[in-house]
Amino acid sequence: LDTRVYIKNSFIHTTLYTKPSDTHAYLNPNSCHPKHVCSNIPQGVAKRIKRICSEESEYYKHKLTHINHFVDRGYNREFITTEFNKCDNLDRLDLIGDPE
Fold first, then answer.
1. What does the alpha-carbon distance between residue 96 and residue 61 come to, in Å, rounded to a whole number?
2. What is the residue-wise DSSP string for 24-64?
3. pTM surpassing 0.70?
4. Which residues pair with 11 in a beta bridge?
5. Residue 14: which of 58, 63, 64 has the closest Cα?
6. Which of 2, 54, 72, 90 has its CB surrounded by the most CB atoms within 10 Å?
7. Contact criterion met (CB below 8 Å) for 5 and 16
C-alpha cells in the first residue's frame, strides 16, 4: 500500500508512495505517552523508507519530506534529523532481512 514500483534502465525499482489524502498525523510529541514511544517513531519511519526505496536518491528525497512532516507535528528538527541520519549508513538489504 505504501510502495510504488517502476522500471528504470531495465531494472525494477521501488519507492515510497503516499496517498494524496495522507495527513502524516504522527503522534504528537507532547502527548501523555511515555517518552520512548514518541522518540522511536521517527527512527521506525526512517527505516521503513530505507527498506522501501531501492535507490538512494529516492531515500534522501523522502527522508527530507518526512523530516518536515515531523517538524510540522511539533517534533524538534535537530532530534528528527539525528534520528533519520542514523539510517543513512544502514544497509538496505540488512533491513529487509534474509527471505529464508
1. 20
2. --PPPTTSSS-HHHHHHHHHHHHHHHHHH-SSHHHHHHHHH
3. yes
4. 8
5. 58
6. 54
7. no
